[in-house]
Each structure stands twice: as C-alpha cells, then as structure tokens.
Amino acid sequence: MRAATIAVRLGRYSPFALTGFAAILLLSSLINPSIWTGPRMAMIDALTPVIDLVGAPFRSMTAAMSDASGLTKIRAENARLKAENKQLHEWYQTAMLLRSENQSLKDLLNVIPEPDQSYITTRVIADSGSSFVKTVLIEAGFDNAVEEGQAVLGSQGMIGRVVEVGKRASRVLLLNDINSHVPVVIEGANQRAVLSGTNDDLLVLIHLPPDLLIEKGARIITSGTGGMFPTGLPIGEVSEIKNGIPMVMMYSDPYGAGYVQIVEKPQDPNVRQSIKVLTSGPE
Description:
With 283 residues, the protein is an alpha+beta fold. It has a domain at 118-280: Beta Barrel (Thrombin, subunit H). Helix content is 40%, strand content 25%. The chain has helices at residues 2-31, 37-108, 269-280, and strands spanning 118-127, 135-138, 151-153, 158-165, 170-174, 181-186, 191-196, 202-206, 219-222, 234-242, 245-250, 259-264. The protein has a 6-stranded antiparallel beta barrel. Strand 4 (158-165) and strand 5 (170-174) form a beta hairpin. The longest helix has 72 residues, at 37-108.
C-alpha cells in the first residue's frame, strides 16, 4: 500500500521533474555547447544499428518503387521506339511503292503516241493467270473515256487491245493470246502482214508471201490498216525463223507492266468496226 502511494506521488511530480531536467540540460548546453558532445555521439553510435535496422524496410521499399518507376519508363520508351520503327517501316514501304510506280511511269515515256493521238495512263490491277486466256484488267473504263478496240501500250511497245469495258475497269486482250490478230508492217522489208498470238511468249507473222526473205531483228510495228490502231506503234522484233515462219518477241512484257497507256486515234467508227471483224477472230 505504501509502495503504491509512493508511485502515485512520483507519477504526479514526474512531469515537473523531467521539465526541470530538460531546462538544466538546455542551460548547460547554452553555457558550454561542447559539454554534451561526447555523450550525444556515444548515444548516436549506440543507436545507429537500431536506426539502420528500422530504416532497412523503408529503403527497400524506396528502391523497389524506384526500380518499378524505371521499368515503367523503359517499357514506355520501348513502346515508343516500336511505334516509331513501325512508322518508319510503313514510310519505307510507301517510298518503295512510289519508287516502283515512278519507274513504271518513266518507262512509259519510251513509247510516246503521236501528237494527234490521245491516251490515258492507268494501272494494271489483275491478270487472268490462265494458260488459255491471255488478258489483264486495267483500272479505267467508261468513266475515263475508254472504248472497246483501243490499243494498249506497255513500257516499250504495244501489248494488247481493249476488248471489254466496264464503268471503272476494262479487260485487255494481250497480243500473245491466240485470238489476237493485228495488222502490222515489217520494217526494212516494207511488207504488210498480220501478227497473231500463240498463247506463248513468241508471236507469229502470217499472211506473208512465200518467197519473202525476213531477217532476224526486223522491227514490227502497227500498220494502221483500216484505222483500227494508230500507225507506227512498236510491237517487237523477229527473234527467230521457225520452219520458215518468222517468230516475233514483244518489246514489252505484258505481265510486267505496272502502268499502261490506252491509245485512241480519231477515226471513222464504221471503218473501225470493219477492221475489228477482220482481225479479231473468234473470242
């Protein structure tokens, strides 16, 4: 009972005692600042391991948060670089496409229609892909003033004629199709003939005099007979004489054309229809 009474009394006076002790310490440090340096440093040395131990979890948490932030930045940078790389790849592909189209358009300059001829430059959009029918589709039709029977040029010369016309697209019968027959002139020999397709790479000259001598390399151009096609469009040259028959290799690969020119020369439509019947044959 007595001990409890003493404890109560000490508890009652302890705040005052602690305050007085703090005041004494403050006054002594003001009078002589270095008096507590030794004890203070000794206490700090003693408490340093405890402070380090208590602070370790917080440091680990801070490092983890820093790593997470850095990883987020790296991921964001990686995503940005991937997006830039994709965009650069798309630009590269676009540049290659434009380069190819530019080259195709430049190639068409090798065959320039006569000044009084009108022409339309358009894109080849598909080919038949058949061994029996040699045609390609072009991206031009009635809306572009395309008409049936017009000559079609590749980069080096004529490759076919328009046989079907739609509103926005047309079908071109290639010169190497077996149904293709074009009136031509053999330069040098100054001989008219008909150039016929064979469904192969080589074309054949028909309706020639039996005693006519034709040399390899002779140039073949359109004759303009009947007005179906303009005169003087280059087609190809005699590459070989097979069993006495001149075989012609076309200047332009009909399947390698990215762009073509559709040529029309003003003429009497009645004459055009007549020559179409004579030269087209069954389709």
